Each structure stands twice: as structure tokens, then as C-alpha cells.
Amino acid sequence: MSPRRGTVDVPGRDRLAQAVRPRPGRERVAGEPPSVAVVGGGIAGLAAATVLAERGVRVVLYEREPVLGGRVSGWAAPLPDGTPATMSRGFHAFFRQYYNLRALLRRVDPELGMLTGLPDYPLRHSGGLHDSFRRVPRTPPWSAAGFVALSPSFGLRDLLALRPAAALPLLDVRTREVHERLDGVSAHDFLDALRFPAAARHLAFEVFSRSFFADPRELSAAEMALMFHIYFLGSSEGLLFDVPREPFPQALWDPLAGRLAGHGVELRTSTPVAAVRPGPSGGALVADGAGERPYDGVVLALDTGGLRAVVGASPELGDAGWRERVAGLRTAPPFLVSRLWLDRPVAPDRPGFLGTSGYGSLDNVSVLSHWEGEAARWAARAGGSVVELHAYAVPESAVRDVEEKRLVEQLYRVYPETRAARVVAVRHEWRADCPLFTVGGHRDRPTVRTPDPSVVLAGDLVRTDLPVALMERAATSGFLAANALLERWGVRGETVWTVPDRGRSAPLRALARRFGDGRLGDAS
Fold first, then answer.
1. Which residue among 62, 93, 99, 113 is least packed, with the fewest CB closer than 10 Å?
2. Which residues lie below 8 Å from residue 191, measured CB to CB, with a gap of 6+?
3. For 64-206, where are the E strands, in sequence order?
4. What digits encode the pLDDT tens for the residues 305-335?
5. What is the C-alpha separation between 408 and 428, in angstroms, rounded?
6. Where does residue 160 rank: exposed (0-12), middle (13-18), buried (19+ CB within 10 A)?
7. What end-to-end distance do the CA atoms of the chain give, in Å?
8. Region of residue 131 (left: phi > 0; alpha: psi -120 to 50; beta: else)
């Protein structure tokens, strides 16, 4: 599959969005349909299952949890008085660059009416500095220039102290090349080399790097540079985003599950897969608690721990080198989501979402009752508000109940009016299942294709060599995994869209090529 640029059927406002076309083939499978097991019901698994089922493949989707959505799932969590409520694993921003995730959601809502835009993406530091993306231009390079010009965290002295030569790799980010150049450096050290001002680092970069659920000292600088490209210098979609109007199950996954069932997909929730092994005459055998079942293909769309466990229990799967790479995958530190139902509203000018820095482990505050229907209806009845707190990368040594109390105390610092509120209900959710994009880890990260052509991988842990990240990487890899299997049966797969995989400005690209070929250390 080769990228194409400048096509007229772009999925957003960016006319330079890049299409990755699948190989030519039939519209649907011919004859007896092949069977595929999709293991994992998160975004990646749902994306793969959707494309396969639409092409006539018989799909069985296995999900170990009782609900779909993976790390964007939700589940019933009634309040103490019996009022129905939904809990989730925390806030997710649906950026306009997420072309493939949006293509998946358009299957059930072509106009994406299940999403609503937030008017701003504000950032706040405990020292008093504030940043906002509402007035930042969307078209590069004016987006980055506008952010610097509008941000109070950039002073003249800071600008004069910057090392432009060290920043040149950001002007022409190409996915493979940026990992060759920067994957051996941490995000923290890269910003040090740029002499990036401390305040702007906290507000503009570490907020983003921590969205990978990692400390910047452990995160590959290549991944951070890729994020900079996706949101600042590579795309004209901007940094504002949408959020679901209702909880994740009602807005997203229940409708998609209905569509999959209509295509004949068998949804087997609460069904973990233990192992996968090659079939005696091709394909693979998938083992769950009820025994083994043969399939013509398998999509492993699991989180890091789940993939390691299944591959570790499947000694005949793949080859030794591939299995070693899977075993070497690491999981990011734990994260905490705390949701509070309060008996009084927050101040009316509080944003629906606020990124924070300098407030201990608190990374953001969401006022769900400003934009989510279920929360807004409860707040209207109770005269209160629903607030969610997120700590992205909590130390392994943290004592959970102590950390939960500290997080709520930080809310009181950020929004002092909440201190006087009575907590009607609170839910704390701890998880530790996000991939860690370690310094130097890109080379060994597994790709969609595996040594066994009947087994493919999908998920945000998978290396795609495309400019995608987070939820969009999950959706993209799911489409690519389905395409890889469909090729075997002569069926055309799904077109994948991304932001451009190079800098948008020819003069800036030339500058980066001419002066940016040295290693990072040369800029010091």
C-alpha cells in the first residue's frame, strides 16, 4: 500500500491529508466465506471486525470484559441511592485528525452527531500561567507560531535561549526517519537540548507526553515529535476536539455492536482467549474456556499484558524472534480516574476540560456535566455537578487510598468552590494496561503482520510506520490488520487516512534536511 496526497475526497478540512490505499481486489469474499477470530473488543478489534464483516467474512469477536470499548469502555455504576450511572476509564479527546476512528464511528452515525465539540483546550499551571488553543490558527506553520505568540509561557529571553538547530527534526517529521533519529533520546532530554522554557514545557509538551501515560523521562522523544507533527506542524485540523454527548457505551459501542450483529458477527463478551496455535491444515486454533475452535485467520487486538500472556501461552505461534519482541513489550505506570458527583455546581465559567500541570499527580479535570448528557441530567436534578479527575502516570509505589485523597485535594486547589460541596458519590478506577513507548523501543515493536500470515496484530501498541497515535493508532491498526487478511482472499480492504507524513512547508523541509542531519547531541 502506497501513500497518495492531494486527493479530493479528503476526510476533513486538510487538503493534504494522506490516503493509504489497499491492494485492488473484489468487493466481497467469493464462495464459502472464511472465518476470523478477533481477539479483543477495544477500538482496534472493533475496527478490524467491522471491515472484515462488511466484506463478507464470518467474524467471532472475543472480549474478556463484559463490555466493549477497551480503554474507552464504560459500565454501569449505580449511585448509592440507586440512580443509574456510568463509570469509565477516563476522559478521551476525539481530535479531528482521527480520520480512521471517525470513519469507524460514521458507520453508525454518518454525521457524527454522537460527538460535540468543546470550545477550547485550556491548560493551567499551578504557578498561575494559562494557555489556550481556542485562538491558535489551525494551519501550519502559523499554528506553532501562533501558539508561541499567544502563550504567556514564552518570553523574549526564552525565545533567544532556544536552540533552533536541535528543533530542526520537528520541521520535517517522517515516521520512520524520526524514530531513527530520536528514538534513542527521551522526551525530557530532547526538550532540554532545545532549551525549551520550563513553563512552556509543562504546559505545551509534558501535558501531551503524559497522555501516553508515561513520565517524559521514559518516553521516546520520537513519539513526542510525532505528536508535535500530528497536532502542530503536520495537520491543519487544529488542536480542538470533540467529546461524546453520552457515556461511551450509549454513544459509541452499543450502536456499533448492533451494526456488527447485523453483519452476522458473533460477539462473545466475558470470554478471554487463553492461547492461539497454528491449525493442522492452515489457519489457527483459538482456545478459550470452552475448548478450541478453528479459524482461517486471527486478529490479536489485545493490550500489552494480554498480548504477552496469549503469546506466552502459545509456544508454536510465530517464531522465536517475534515472540521475544512481544515478551519485551512494557506497560506504562498505573493511572487513576476519580469521578465525583457533587451536591452543588462548579463555577459557571469552568471549562468542560482543563489540562493541568504542577498540581501533584493531577493531569486534567473534566466537568462532565457541562457536556455529557447523563451527567448533565443528574446535575440538573440534584442541583450539583459531575467532575472527573485523571492522574496519568502514578508511581508504582503509591498507596492507593492516599493517592485518591491527594487527587481530590488538588481539585480543591484548582476549583476552590468544590471544597464546600458534599460528595454524593465517588468512584475511583485504577488501571495499568497502557503501552509504554520506551526510549529505543521502536525497532523491536511488533507490526501488524506476524511470521504467520494467518495471524495479525492490532492496537495502539502496534508499529504502523504511519503518523498516528493513541486512539487513532488503534483504529488505523485495526483497519490495516483486516486489510492484511483480506489480501489473502483477493478482497479489497479499507482506505486508511493520515495527516501528511512529512513537513508541510517545502522551505522548512529543505532547512531541516540541510542543517538537521546531525545527531541530537550536536546541538548542545
1. 113
2. 201, 205, 216
3. 74-76, 86-88, 94-95, 115-117, 123-125, 130-131
4. 999 999 999 999 999 999 999 999 999 999 9
5. 11
6. exposed
7. 39
8. beta
Report the C-alpha gap between 47 and 482 in whole angstroms.
8
Written as one letter, the residue type at 198 is A
Following DSSP, what letter does each residue of 383-450 receive, concatenated?
T-EEEEEEES---TT--HHHHHHHHHHHHHHHSGGGGGS-EEEEEEEEE---B--BTT-STTS-BSB-
> What is Dmax (Cα atoms) for the chain?
70
User: Does residue 66 have a cis bond before it (omega within 30 degrees)?
Assistant: no
Which has the closest alpha carbon to 477: 450, 502, 437, 511?
Answer: 450
Q: Which helix (H) or strand (E) holds 99?
A: helix 99-105
Q: Is the pLDDT of residue 6 over 80?
A: no
Residue 523: the pLDDT is 36
Instruction: Enter the C-alpha cell of residue 41.
Output: 473488543
Cα dihedral 136, 137, 140, 144 in deg (nearest 10): -20
Place of cell 506553532: 144
Q: What digits encode the pLDDT tens for the residues 249-294?
A: 999 999 999 999 999 999 999 999 999 999 998 999 999 999 999 9
Distance, CA of 354 to CA of 376 (rounded, Å): 18
> Which residue type is seen at 519?
R
Q: Using CA atoms, how far apart are residues 298 and 193, in angstroms rounded to an integer? A: 44
Handedness of CA 115, 233, 177, 500 (dihedral sign): positive
Q: 3-class DSSP state for residue 469? A: coil
Whole-angstrom distance, CA of residue 237 vs CA of residue 235 = 6
For the chain, helix, strand, coil in percent to 5 are 35, 20, 45
